[in-house]
Amino acid sequence: MSERPQDIHVSSTCFPQRRRSIVVAALALTLVVASPGVSRSAETTLYRLFLLDGSTLVSYGEFARVADRVVFSVPIGETSDANLQVISIAESAVDWERTDRYTDAVRAKHYAETRGADDFAMLSNRVVEALNTIAVTENPARRLAMAQEARANLARWPSENFGYRAKDVAQMVGMLDEVVSDLGPAAGKSQFELSLVGITEPPAVELLPDPGLRERLERGLAAAELASEPSERLSLLQAIALSLREPAKAGGWAAALERRASAALETELKLARSYADLTRSIVTLAKARAARADVRGVQAVIQQALAADDRLGRRRPGEMAGLLAVLDLRLDEARRLRLARDAWAARRVLFDHYRGAIDSILATVRRGKKPLEQIRELAGPAPGTLERLEQRFVMARQALQRVETPAELQSSRDLFAAGLLMAGRAASTRRNAVSSRNMKLAWDAAAAASGALMLIDRARDELDRLTTRPPDR
Question: In the predicted model, what is the mean pLDDT of residues 379-388?
Answer without folding.
Answer: 90
